[in-house]
TrEMBL record:
Keywords: Amino-acid biosynthesis, Arginine biosynthesis, Cytoplasm, NADP, Oxidoreductase. It is found in: Cytoplasm. One of its GO terms (cellular component) is cytoplasm. It catalyses: N-acetyl-L-glutamate 5-semialdehyde + phosphate + NADP(+) = N-acetyl-L-glutamyl 5-phosphate + NADPH + H(+). GO terms for biological process: L-arginine biosynthetic process. Catalyzes the NADPH-dependent reduction of N-acetyl-5-glutamyl phosphate to yield N-acetyl-L-glutamate 5-semialdehyde. Belongs to the NAGSA dehydrogenase family. Type 1 subfamily. The keyword Amino-acid biosynthesis applies. SMART domains: Semialdhyde_dh. It is an enzyme of class 1 (oxidoreductase). Coiled coil: none annotated. Its EC number is 1.2.1.38. This is N-acetyl-gamma-glutamyl-phosphate reductase.
Amino acid sequence: MTWTAAVAGATGYAGGEALRLLAAHPQIEIGALTAASSAGTQLGQHHPHLASLAGRTVEPTEAVRLARHDVVILALPHGASGEVTAAIEAEARAAGTDPLLIDCGADHRLTDPQAWAAFYGSDYAGAWSYGMPELLHAGERTASAQRAELAATRRIAVPGCNVTAVTLAAQPGIAAGLLDTSPDAPAITAVLAVGYSGAGKSLKPHLTAAEALGSAQPYAVGGTHRHIPEITQNLLVAGAGSGAGRLAFTPVLVPMSRGILATVTAPVTSAVHDSDDPTAMLRQAWAQAYGGPGEDGEALIHLLPQGTWPTTGAVAGSGLATVQVAYDPVARAATMLCAIDNLGKGTASAALQSLNLALGIPETTGVITEGVAP
Ligand SMILES: NC(=O)C1=CN([C@@H]2O[C@H](COP(=O)(O)OP(=O)(O)OC[C@H]3O[C@@H](n4cnc5c(N)ncnc54)[C@H](OP(=O)(O)O)[C@@H]3O)[C@@H](O)[C@H]2O)C=CC1
Ligand SMILES: CC(=O)N[C@@H](CCC(=O)OP(=O)(O)O)C(=O)O
């Protein structure tokens, strides 16, 4: 069986990566490609690497063009996609169609309208099923509840890329009750090295080569990044206590086109630091969630052998995440790392996994499971 898929925001980075994967998906036929200012141009002008789609004409983003497809992937600026998804739903109701809608933007991720208002400010568009199949729910040691939800939904919100890296790094320790997230515990701290493509393709002075090459640039410092409530939301789903609400999050732009390396530290419980082998205790929880090195487990999340560290280079171009956890006896903390490609596991691969689950086909169909090196 095949399904038609349209991509809105096709000329952007996230839309382009979704198309790269869809073009190789055996059960997807690519339909309308839409955008805004670039409507009327050919896709090859924007994505010369997408050879099979180079001659396709970019259309305006209009609900009537999108709603006739089986699947619509939206990769639009946040705030824009909420309006477009509402228009597609209205058009689909009128036409008697029921497209699977997958939004790569932030508009449908947050379940708390107040968190949306505090960090985004535009009208709240409502929460959809969260497109992270590996998200652990409280009480789970391997992920199944989120997969079940995605298999039964027609509306999917793809996670933010920084959120994905932090959540995958830390959630096994939360779900196993090994991290101290009690109300008075020290804050969880996340510092991320992030690549430029996370900021989208539009021209920004701080992203020109003259400003960015050879320089590391922190941004959204001091509790202001809009991904903070989304990370907290995930950690609470995984079973965190209210202390997880005091997440200290600092992203730093570094000179690479793609990639995120998240380093997350959190205090461990007394059960961990009083144990004979805290490292083994921590690693066991991560291995249970994802599978240990060389073992079966999550197909796209790899716990590395002890003492080896995730790198962005090893996951570039793929849908993989690599993770590691170490015990810091001086800080009485777990140091947890995760590397992803922001456009891979951070966007398009997560969208494709969710699409596959919702259509009832094997979850990793079309997802790239090997990196590119050097
Ligand atoms: N880049 C990343 O790593 C990640 C991005 N995302 C999310 O994906 C979405 C897209 O991001 P990204 O690809 O980086 O952004 P880009 O700026 O690269 O692309 C934006 C796309 O949206 C189109 N567009 C802009 N405004 C409108 C509008 N009002 N109506 C219709 N189309 C519009 C643009 O068309 P045109 O070229 O014609 O202007 C372009 O195709 C965002 O919500 C982003 O937050 C999520 C995770 C990671
Ligand atoms: C480098 C850079 O600017 N990165 C973006 C992350 C983009 C992302 O995750 O997308 P959403 O907008 O869909 O949440 C940021 O930090 O805001």
